[in-house]
From TrEMBL:
The name this protein goes by in its record: histidine kinase
Entry coiled-coil feature ranges: none
One GO CC term on file: membrane
Catalytic activity as recorded in UniProt: ATP + protein L-histidine = ADP + protein N-phospho-L-histidine
Pfam families tied to this protein: HisKA_3
All copies of domain Signal transduction histidine kinase subgroup 3 dimerisation and phosphoacceptor, residue ranges: 215-279
Organism: Streptomyces glaucescens
Top-tier EC class: transferase
Length: 420
């Protein structure tokens, strides 16, 4: 029982009614233009005194509305109105200008339909309520003012006064039903006429993929630079604290390494955040390379008490820039894992072996550290191995990590040439 009144007078029905009335208001200028055409054509001075001429003017104005619907702002404005007033899901509508011929045709069809149904419902909304109120009040008016109502002789009967209120209420219900029906019809057709075309969906998917790629790249850069810096600084400070009284020279080296690490990390962080601020492509953010900073990376890692043996079988300066940059991040994350899971004590006893060499047409990076280390220095670990795998995959390479002979081994193979 409640569904019927809600369908006619509920919040959604009222908002759709407003949407139709807005369509009728938009139709009025076109009706006036149609009046200028119809009036001289039939030699009528006052077109709005004749219902037939009004409808003719309305019919002449609708094609003009279809033409003006080709303006770029029509679809965004109509989609916004449909979203808020008709209750259509946002992802079913397109909010950009119509580009293709088919999209423009659908937009023109929608605009014409909106103005056509809106003009009809607006006219009914102006005419029916006063007439219905008059019919509802007719018995009372006839009772107290018998001379005020001049009915034709054929209608001057008591049953007319009894039936008039029912007809008035029925007129209002019919108006509400027509408005609800037209509003539901527009809401049903809106996705087909205002929805995104296949090319719009493809463009949106490409934008989402590009945004996701940027976010993933930034996440990897932040994890590798900031995560490594925090791990290194934590262990450097821990090592310095343990030998504060016995080895002042080591403490000075550790503090210098902490200063250098934090300074470099702040610079890298500012560069990565600049991508977010300026909207640059991911590759434009400057990053260290093997050629520029491998020695500094090893020095800062060793300052935390971790003994690192490095074997270089390739000239870092001969590597392509992109490969050198990604290889640096992979080495950085491999050493960071050794810092977190090995710790300075194990590193001093067993050492960490780093090997960067050429294997055929590929660059091979191997990092080995003992499995007998202490617990990670930060609970829960991180996403370093996943980030390494992502970097290798994007370059067309492979990565593998796991225990091997009492050691934890990370091995990454990357093509020696930049991907096209």
């Amino acid at each position: 029982m409640r569904a019927f009144p809600r369908a006619l007078f509920g919040r959604r029905a009222r908002r759709r009614w407003i949407h139709l009335i807005l369509g009728g208001a938009l139709a009025m200028p076109y009706v006036f233009v149609g009046q200028l055409v119809v009036g001289p054509a039939v030699d009528a001075r006052y077109v709005f005194q004749d219902l037939f001429l009004q409808l003719a003017s309305f019919a002449v104005g609708l094609p003009l509305a279809a033409v003006t619907a080709l303006f770029p702002l029509t679809r965004p404005l109509e989609s916004g109105a449909v979203r808020w007033l008709c209750g259509v899901a946002p992802d079913l509508l397109a909010y950009g200008p119509a580009r293709s011929r088919a999209a423009k045709g659908r937009t023109a069809a929608w605009f014409t339909l909106h103005l056509g149904l809106g003009g009809i419902i607006s006219g009914m909304s102006l005419a029916l309520p006063p007439f219905a109120v008059f019919l509802i009040l007719l018995p009372a008016l006839a009772r107290f003012h018998a001379d005020a109502v001049d009915l034709p002789a054929s209608l001057d009967h008591t049953w007319v006064y009894a039936l008039a209120p029912a007809v008035g209420v029925a007129s209002l219900l019919a108006l509400a039903a027509c408005a609800a029906g037209c509003g539901a019809l527009l809401a049903r057709w809106a996705p087909a006429l205002l929805g995104p075309a296949p090319e719009d969906r493809l463009a949106a998917a490409e934008r989402r993929a590009a945004d996701l790629a940027v976010r993933n790249r930034l996440a990897r850069e932040l994890h590798d630079s900031v995560g490594h810096a925090l791990s290194a600084v934590t262990l450097q400070a821990s090592a310095a604290r343990r030998v504060l009284d016995s080895d002042p020279e080591f403490v000075r080296e550790a503090l210098a390494a902490i200063e250098d690490t934090t300074r470099r990390t702040v610079g890298e962080l500012d560069a990565v955040l600049g991508v977010l601020r300026d909207g640059d492509t991911p590759g434009t953010a400057p990053a260290p390379t093997l050629d520029a900073d491998l020695g500094g990376l090893l020095r800062r890692t060793r300052a935390g008490g971790l003994r690192v043996r490095c074997e270089l079988g390739v000239d870092p300066a001969a590597l392509p820039p992109l490969l050198s940059r990604e290889a640096y991040r992979i080495v950085q994350e491999g050493l960071s894992n050794a810092l977190r899971h090995g710790g300075p004590g194990d590193g001093a006893d067993h050492g960490v072996a780093l090997r960067v060499a050429r294997a055929g047409d590929r660059l091979e990076i191997t990092v080995e550290n003992p499995l007998t280390g202490s617990a990670p220095c930060r609970p829960g670990g991180g996403h370093g191995l996943r980030g390494i795998a992502d970097r290798a995959r994007l370059l067309g390479g492979t990565s593998e990590a796991g225990p091997a002979g009492g050691m934890w081994r990370l091995r990454v193979r990357l093509p020696m040439k930049d991907p096209a």
